[in-house]
Every structure is written in C-alpha cells, then in structure tokens.
Design goal:
This protein has one domain. Helices cover about 20% and strands about 35% of the residues. It has one helix at about 50-60, and strands spanning about 5-10, 20-25, 30-35, 45. Strand 2 and strand 3 (about 30-35) form a beta hairpin.
Length: about 70
C-alpha cells in the first residue's frame, strides 16, 4: 500500500522561523517540494527513485557547498 501524508513539513534542522527553508510532503510514491515561505510557490515533484537518489547524494556529501 502506498504511503499517504498530505501534510507539509520542514526538517528539524531548518532553524524554525528561518526564511530560507523548503518543505516536503509525500503523496503516494511522490515527494513534493516547495518554498516554505510562499505556500503558493511552484512545487517540484520527484518520484521515489529520484528522491532516493537525492537522499543518497545528501548522505554521501555530494551536494556540499564549495569552500
């Protein structure tokens, strides 16, 4: 059965009221990502494989900002 969670959420590392955050929600096998400060902003949608690849990249430090 597909996972369904229509609530938007931010990482606990986002700093609370920080204006530079994104939100994510999962609907079935898709991750929806948007700007947390603009609820009507465009939403990026990723399928499960794309989201898994992104998470692995983050875990492996592939998206770290250059020094």
């Amino acid at each position: 059965m597909a996972r369904l969670n229509q609530q938007w959420f931010k990482s606990s590392f986002s700093g609370g009221n920080d204006s530079n955050c994104v939100e994510v929600r999962f609907i079935n096998d898709f991750a929806h990502v948007r700007n947390s400060t603009m609820a009507d902003s465009p939403v990026l949608v990723f399928n499960r494989g794309e989201w898994d690849a992104f998470e692995l990249g983050v875990f492996n430090g592939e998206f770290s900002m250059p020094a």
